[in-house]
Write a structure and sequence with these properties.
There is one protein chain. With 287 residues, the protein is of the alpha/beta class. The chain folds into 2 domains: 222 residues, Rossmann fold, CATH 3.40.50; 47 residues. It contains 9 helices and 9 strands. The strands form 2 sheets. Strands 1, 2, 3, 4, 5, 6 and 9 form a 7-stranded mixed β-sheet that branches. The chain has a two-stranded antiparallel ribbon with strand order 7-8. Helix 1 crosses helix 8 and helix 3 packs across helix 4. The longest helix has 27 residues. The protein is globular and about 65 Å long.
C-alpha cells in the first residue's frame, strides 16, 4: 500500500524511535499483511492523558528534541488534560478508561489528519505489549470514520462546533484510513535505543491512575522478591552476596524493569544537520 501523507500519532519518544524507523524505511506491515510505504510522514503529539503537567512537559520536550535532531516532521497539539478527565470520568477502571483515552487521542489525531489532507492515520501505541491493541484498532477505525464531513455534522465531541469541524476538513483524494500496524516486535529495541541515547524513559503509562497502579505493582514485586529471599534462606539455601546486600534466588519471570509500563499498558541520536524545529499548533478547532 502506497500512502501519500501518513499521520502517525506519537505517544512518547521511546515508543516513537523504532516505530517511526520501521515506517519510514518501508518495513511496516498492517495486521492484515499489507506492506505500507509513505511519501510523507507527520508525527503528531497529542497526549492529554499525561499527568502531572511537569511530567507532560518532560516527555514532550524529549520528543520535540529527538524529532528536531532527526529532521522528522513533527507537530505538537495543545495539551488538554481537562478533556481527558471529562472523557474518563464515568469509568476510571481498566479497560474502560483506556478505551476512552484511545478514543480521545486518536479522534483528535484523525481530525488533524483530515484537516491537513492526509490520507492515512496510525499510532506508535501498538509498539507496547502492555497496551490493548484490539481496543486501539477499534478506536482508530471509529476515529477515521467520524472524520468524513457528513459524519461530523451533529457531533459535539470533537472540541469545536460541528459545522466548524466539517467545513474545515480538506477532503483527501481518498477517505482517511486507519492503518492497524503492530510495532510490538520493536518494543525492546526501541526502549534500549532511548536509554542508550540518554532519552527520558518514563515508568508509567501516563495518567495518574496508571501511576498509582505502577507504584503498587512495583511494591508488590519488591515484596515478592523479599519473601522469596527469606524463603530460600529458611530452606537452608544460602543467599548470594552482592557487595553488602544479601539476596535469595529470584524467579527471572517475576522481574520487570522499574521503568516499564504496568500490566495493561504500554510508552538514537545520530549526527545530522540541524533540522527545522517541530511546529506547535493548537488542537484543531479546540478554541
Amino acid at each position: 500500500m502506497r500512502v501519500e501523507h501518513l499521520v502517525m500519532h506519537a505517544c512518547c519518544t521511546p515508543c516513537t524511535i523504532k516505530s517511526y524507523e520501521r515506517l519510514a524505511s518501508g518495513r511496516a506491515i498492517t495486521r492484515e499483511g499489507e506492506p505500507v510505504s509513505a511519501s510523507r510522514i507527520t508525527l503528531l503529539y497529542y497526549n492529554p492523558n499525561i499527568a502531572p503537567a511537569e511530567e507532560y512537559e518532560r516527555r514532550r520536550d524529549a520528543w520535540v528534541a529527538y524529532c528536531a535532531r532527526q529532521g522528522i516532521e513533527a507537530v505538537e497539539l495543545e495539551y488538554e488534560p481537562q478533556l481527558w478527565e471529562e472523557a474518563t470520568a464515568a469509568d476510571l477502571q481498566v479497560p474502560g478508561r483506556c478505551r476512552q483515552c484511545y478514543a480521545l487521542r486518536l479522534g483528535r489525531a484523525a481530525a488533524w489528519a483530515a484537516q491537513h489532507g492526509a490520507d492515512a492515520l496510525t499510532t506508535t501505541l501498538t509498539i507496547s505489549p502492555y497496551q490493548m491493541s484490539e481496543l486501539i484498532a477499534e478506536e482508530g477505525q471509529k476515529a477515521v470514520l467520524a472524520m468524513s464531513p457528513s459524519s461530523c455534522v451533529g457531533r459535539d465531541d470533537l472540541g469545536a462546533p460541528p459545522s466548524q469541524i466539517a467545513s474545515s476538513i480538506t477532503a483527501p483524494a481518498a477517505p482517511l484510513r486507519y492503518l492497524d500496524i503492530d510495532f510490538s516486535s520493536d518494543y525492546r529495541a526501541s526502549q534500549n535505543a532511548a536509554r542508550a541515547a540518554g532519552i527520558y524513559v518514563q515508568n508509567y503509562c501516563g495518567c495518574l491512575p496508571s501511576k498509582r497502579e505502577a507504584e503498587e505493582q512495583r511494591a508488590q514485586r519488591r515484596a515478592a522478591r523479599k519473601k522469596t529471599s527469606v524463603g530460600d534462606d529458611a530452606l537452608g539455601m544460602p543467599p548470594v552476596e552482592l557487595g553488602s546486600t544479601s539476596v535469595g534466588r529470584v524467579d527471572p519471570s517475576a522481574e520487570r524493569p522499574e521503568n516499564e509500563p504496568v500490566a495493561s499498558f504500554s510508552a538514537e541520536q545520530s549526527a545530522s544537520p540541524a533540522p527545522p524545529v517541530p511546529t506547535t499548533e493548537s488542537a484543531p478547532d479546540a478554541h
